[in-house]
Amino acid sequence: MDLRAIILFSFLLFSTVQGLMFELQPNGRKCLREEVQKDVLVTGEYEVSEVPGQRTDVKVTDIKGHTLVSHEDKSKGKFAFTTDDYEVYEICFVSKVPPNLRGQKHEVEVTVKMGLEAKNYETLGEAARLKPLEVELKRLEDLSEAIVQDFAYMRQREEEMRDTNESTNSRVLYFSVFSMLCLIALATWQVLYLRRFFKAKKLIE
């Protein structure tokens, strides 16, 4: 595998593009959920088919309920935010129909980009007056940094999972020892009780 193939594979691995099209029922709600790491740029572009008298709201929230993006009554638009922490983020589309109207379905088309794919290097290059080769080097620099950060995150997760496994093994061991002691104590009590019972009945001496 040559260097270009490795770079292409790494770029596909550490950047994400999601393009979806779906139907939104009248007075319905549909959300897209995605786990995103910390300090990752997320951009999106959406377009909702217009239905007379109906409105569609778009809201982006994190798992804690914080609103990151809120677009009300918009048929198309863009949004962008940078994640503060590793958690689940939701992009929700909400249809609202007045009571006096018969609702119709909306067709929603949304494209979400994350990581390196969300950055517009052409615009960055024009703003900084960089040559095409310098823009490509900047892209590769960001890619290498993303790879390092991702491997560091994977190592951290591996350490957390190992600590969790060790803690679970210790708890299982303690529970097993406790269960054996309880069984031994119960068996001893049963033997003593039965011995006392049989002596009381004068079945044994």
UniProtKB/TrEMBL annotation:
Domain annotation GOLD: ranges: 29-114
Location in the cell: Membrane
Entry membrane topology: Single-pass type I membrane protein
Record's keyword terms, sorted: Developmental protein, Membrane, Signal, Transmembrane, Transmembrane helix
GO cellular component, one term: Golgi apparatus
Signal as UniProt keyword: yes
Chief site of localization: membrane
Pfam families: EMP24_GP25L
InterPro entries for this protein: Emp24-like (IPR015720), GOLD_dom (IPR009038)
Transmembrane regions: 172-194
N-terminal signal peptide: 1-19
Family listed: Belongs to the EMP24/GP25L family.
Protein name: GOLD domain-containing protein
Taxonomic lineage: Eukaryota, Metazoa, Ecdysozoa, Arthropoda, Crustacea
